[in-house]
Amino acid sequence: MRGYKKAFRRAFPYTIPVLTGYLFIGIAFGVMYAEKGYSALWAVLMSVMVYAGSGQYLAVNFFVPGVSFLHVAFMTLMVNIRHVFYGISLLDKFHRMGKKRWYMIFSLTDETYSLLCTVKIPKDVEEEKFLFAIALLDQCYWIIGSAIGGILKNVLPFNAEGIEFAMTALFVVIFIEQWLEKKNRIPAAIGVGAAFLCLQIFGSANFVFPTMILCVLVLFASRKRISEEVDICR
Questions:
Q1: What is the full DSSP assignment across 63-75?
Q2: Transmembrane segments in this chain: where (predicted)?
Q3: Does 190 share its domain with 159?
């Protein structure tokens, strides 16, 4: 444990924005989970073992009869397929982290990825310990939020209609921030264009699958152009 105390202390200030976000959307997840009749303990367990953000929100709707395992697996894969691209860009960093790389792969979320790519490692802290501290702190925030939400819903019953929009709102904010800050907006434009096209063709009830598939295909096809744009922006 040598050096980890300092790593967590130095990493905490960088994770405060994630703390404020994850607490609230974690609470929303806990409330949604409790509405299905599950205790706060199950919400916490899912956040510990699954920890998939939007995938967990989606999974709440799978706890009903008639939903096949293949449908669950495919939807989860498509919702979180962006993590494949995240992981590829961090292979070198994770490879140097030994056994901790398995947890780093597991704990890679949108917000954690953003921090891992942008924070400057303090000179008095080992890189692998600092990055590990960021990832673990972020997951702890999500777990705490899930526990609070599950407990609140069971102790203080209230109408939680519309609370599932918390995750959608978070992604909207992330999208707007990236659009304003990034010079290379091709991936964002592809996502918006694909969603609009599939919405017109397949309708609001069936456009999610085709949109995700189209996004992946177009991103793969245009990856060379996107890479060139990134180099130019740098």
A1: SSTT--HHHHHHH
A2: 12-34, 41-63, 69-91, 130-152, 158-176, 188-221
A3: no
Amino acid at 70: L
Task: State the residue range of the domain holding 99.
Answer: 4-163
- Kindly give, in sequence order, each residue whose CB lies less than 8 Å from that of residue 23, ignoring residues fewer than 6 positions away: 141, 144, 145, 148
Is 177 a member of any domain? no
Question: How far from the centroid of its chain's Cα atoms is residue 201's Cα?
Answer: 28
The whole-model pTM stands at 0.75
Nearest alpha carbon to residue 167 among 27, 7, 5, 19: 27
Q: Which amino acid is at 80?
A: N
Residue 38 belongs to some domain of the structure? yes
Instruction: Say how many C-beta atoms besides its own lie within 10 A of residue 72's C-beta.
Output: 16
Q: Give how many domains the chain has, as a whole number.
A: 2
Q: How far is CA 177 from the centre of its chain?
A: 16
Query: In 3D, which of 170, 175, 147 has the Cα closest to residue 30?
Result: 147
Q: Show pLDDT as tens, one digit a residue, over the chain (234 residues).
A: 678 899 999 999 999 989 988 998 899 889 888 888 888 999 999 999 989 877 787 777 777 666 777 777 777 777 777 777 778 778 888 988 989 999 999 999 888 988 898 888 998 899 999 999 999 999 999 999 999 999 988 787 767 677 667 667 766 776 776 677 666 677 778 888 988 999 999 998 788 778 878 887 887 787 666 555 544 434
